[in-house]
Amino acid sequence: MEAFVSAVNDVVWSNALIYLCLGAGLFYSVLTRFAQVRHFKEMCKLLFSPNTSDKGISSFQALAVSLSGRVGVGNIAGVAAAIGFGGPGAIFWMWIVAFLGASTAYAESTLGQIYKTEEDGQYRGGPAYYFDRCLEQKWLAILFAVSAIVACGVFLPGVQANAVGNAFTQVFGNGTMVSTSFGEVGSFKLVALAIILIVLAFIIFGGIKRIANFTQIVVPFMALGYIVLALIVVFLNIDKVPGIFSLIITDAFTAQAGFGAAIGWGVKRGIYSNEAGQGTGPHAAAAAEVDHPAQQGLVQAFSVYVDTIFVCTATALMILITQQYNVVGELPAGQFIVQNVDAATEVGSAAFTQMALFSVFGSFGEAFVGIALFFFAFTTILAYYYIAETNIAYLNRYFKGSIPLVIVKFVIMFMVSYGMVNSSGYIWSIGDIGVGLMAWINILGILSIFFVARPALLCLRDYEEQKKKGGAITFDPVKLGIKNATFWEKRFAKQATNSQK
User: What is the pLDDT of residues 403-417, one digit of tens each?
Assistant: First the structure.
């Protein structure tokens, strides 16, 4: 089974997808005139927009929900894996993916807002909705919805849970070994699993509001705490920092592990971490209450920076400064190109990060990574559930019934249990397949949307013009020639009626 999963993963994550992700980011960066740079100040300002309603959440809450999906295991274990398999140069390619991916995130999240709908008292949107309404290709919308449900409900939750289990074992050991249907499992890992399942069940039965309220507190707090620890490590070793950045940049092109390994692992782990182009961010973006779709698109572009430029870089600097890492060569398999720590240390886990912090802060640092992983992974699982729920809501217009949603809730909890007790390599491969499937469909779809209608670009220009003129910000899709944006058509008509009274 593991060999089959690995073979499928190699097909999904061929060079074609890697260069398609980079190409899509460059494509939208050029067409938006690098909005991710020009509008950086506006992104920060929009973060704290107070807009909210009974049907939608604020921009900050939407950012927190999307960041809960972006900031997860990929930022801690994923960065460690990128260095372990691709060498320090892989971090450079993660930065490139983040910079270019910010424009992709703008485009897909703006589309999520433009074509969102109001269903059962909540705002819903995402790739399935904009493929249906903009491209008018229901088959593509259904295909994405199914792939998202399978990826986020089955493939991806296990990756997050696996990293939590490994982190707990690294800090507390195995404890008493207990015989389960999954095999021998340490008692401490089972305790962590029980906590996750209980809290997860409580929150996912509460809907997007409960998820948003939880993530808006936990995600910023943990991300800030994690970055602060990283800054302490950096300042204590400030003399090493120029050399580390030089190592990252030079190794990006003369890679120890090979150029293909550096760019491949950097792009793969970068996309897994920041999710730009994957099609996950638009789900939370569509739930936000905003005055103009471009506003939430810009906020989501900023979230890519938070994820990769801040959190992933923090992890990379800690690992590289303290030299708590190995680099494994592809050929011959398993041979170390660089070996600084015990050969038995699992490359695909968070062990490098924990060892880095342990070398500076002792047991506190190691425990902090375990706690951070717990919260990062848990909030990511919540984001995955919300994405699965949104796509089930889309499919419900064709297949009525509440049973599928209940099934997904229990499947996610089962996959969390399964991922907690299995090996990292196998689980990461399953997760990569889930990410890759959504990325293929979404990136090809948003590129097709540009050639059909260009709504994301029209939206950005409209927003920029209104900002220059000053006054109230509104969005009239009909004026811009954007079809099937029925939610915004109704809202603009209502605003026009109210202004005439």
Answer: 777 888 888 888 888
Q: Return d(Cα 321, Cα 473) in angstroms, integer.
A: 47
Tens of pLDDT, residue by residue over 339-381, are 777 777 777 667 788 888 888 888 888 778 777 777 777 878 8
- The 8-class DSSP code of residue 327 comes to E
In DSSP notation, 301-319 reads HHHHIIIIIIIIHHHHHHH
| Contacts with 126 (C-beta within 8 Å, 6 or more apart), sequence order | 112, 148, 279, 282, 283, 286, 387, 390, 391, 394
> b/e for 233-257, b at 16 or more Cβ within 10 A?
bbeebeebeeebeebbeebbeebbb
Q: Which residues, at least 6 apart from 461, have a Cβ–Cβ distance to it below 8 Å?
A: none
Q: Supply the pLDDT for residue 218.
A: 76
Alpha helices for 87-122 (secondary structure H): 89-114
pTM here is 0.83
**Rounded CA gap, 386 and 419, in Å?**
19
Residue in the structure block whose two tokens are 């789900």: 283
Higher-pLDDT residue of 332 and 299 is 299
